[in-house]
Amino acid sequence: MKKVWKRALAALLGMGMVFSLAACGGPSGEASKAPAESKAAESSAPAESSAPAGGSKTIVGIYKMGTATWFIEEGAASQKVVEDAGYTWKFMDCDQNAATYMDLLNTVIADKVDGVLVCLPDQNLSQTTVDMLTEAGIPVIAVDDALEDESGKKLAPWVGIDGYNIGKTTGEWGVNYIKENNLADDESFGILLMTADTVSSCVPRTEGELDAIKEGLPDFPEARIFRADCDTSAADGNQAADAVVTGHPEIKKWLVLGVSDESSQGAARAIESAGLGADSMVVGLGAYLCPDEFDNPDSCFRAAAYFSALDIGSTAAQSMLDYLEKGTEIPETYAVSATIIEFGDDLAAKMPEYAG
Q1: What digits encode the pLDDT tens for the residues 73-109?
Q2: Distance CA 280, CA 301 (A)
Q3: Could you tell me which of 307, 297, 309, 296 has the C-alpha nearest to residue 341?
Q4: What is the pTM for the complete model shown?
Q5: How many CA atoms lie within 13 A of 164 on its CB side?
Q6: Cβ 201 vs Cβ 285: under 8 Å
Q7: Which residues sit opposite 257 in a β-bridge?
């Protein structure tokens, strides 16, 4: 049923339907799906997958958007490491729903699993997650979105991306794009930042993008820098971007700097629906949707910051295995950096897990 719904939404967005709803803020809202499936996600991840019977220990991955390409790839990387070690792996999708997440958390505790990798749908559940797993004697590693308290202090080891520097790399590419196309003084040109202000791992991405713009274009008018806050999904990104694009008809050329690939994909559809795709540039974060977007001749999604889901998934799983097998202390943080992928690049060479 999910796949049918997902394909239906893809068709609607691809046909250029414009949503007029205001942006839904935060990761704890209703479940939503990307409007298009990438090559890597043609066989969507099952709600639960495991290694052949006989694994001596079980490690579980609980992901906030288990049907998203990023989490499918990340989970597959963890699965390989876990199963190669002779353990059992289980993949769980909480579908951006806090109640579902809590049900899954209770399930893994009842099953007495040996370790948990988690990207939770609502960071307000961080302390609860750590408390419950600690009481059960189950080690946990946060992936992508940190388990942290209200002050931002990490409550558990974390494996993810270097958000600020990835954002800055993306922003610097955007500055060069503006300069090369003589857009800085063009009053019909605007920058749209896709943001996710309620997700702590996403905030530094936007901060890095803004700092790069201020450093590279110190005189660029703030009045032509816009924000569209969303939950990082394509559907929410589409709604948020559409509200900005339709609300500012004076802007005819857009540069979108993303907070995720999905949010950028949603923004691209909004811009194209407004008839502005030919003179606009959308930049994603993740690059896992680049194969599909680059194959679409009508897409204005033509660049993205690439960072490896395989790196994060395999590192988190190996750290958990080392702890369980050898008692090796799990590193407090591990962050990956990014490079920019552009339309025309050899995707198979630069990002083989997503192209081929």
Answers
A1: 999 999 999 999 999 999 999 999 999 999 999 999 9
A2: 9
A3: 307
A4: 0.72
A5: 2
A6: no
A7: 193, 283
